[in-house]
Design goal:
Strand content: under 5%
Distance between the termini: 51 Å
Number of domains: 1
Number of helices: 4
Length: 110
């Protein structure tokens, strides 16, 4: 792949896997043992934020996030990202973190 170009197939697949993991962890964090601990509107915002955050982190780190074998038999690679791919990845992280913080602030204010 040419330097400075985004491999969109791997970027999208890493993003899907990261968003699934972010969705799971967002749901688990917003619904603790005794049921939801956040207000209903805040829960949805928090879950969306964690989903975007998971997708952004996965598109930045790529296989390094998932494949950490102790012997390093299979060398891990980052997702090859150009300027557009990096911008989208960092934007998803920023928007996701902002949504999670906004949901927590809204939950504490009500």
């Amino acid at each position: 792949m040419a330097e400075g170009r985004t491999n969109w197939v791997s970027w999208v697949l890493q993003g899907l896997l990261g968003s699934i993991c972010g969705l799971y962890f967002g749901y688990r964090l917003s619904h603790m043992r005794d049921g939801p601990w956040m207000q209903p509107g805040c829960t949805a915002m928090s879950i969306w934020g964690m989903t975007l955050l998971g997708a952004g982190i996965a598109t930045i780190y790529g296989d390094q996030l998932w494949m950490q074998f102790p012997s390093q038999i299979y060398p891990t690679e980052k997702v090859s990202s150009g300027r557009v791919g990096r911008f989208l990845s960092h934007s998803m992280c920023a928007i996701g973190a902002g949504l999670v913080v906004a949901a927590l602030i809204m939950n504490w204010m009500t």
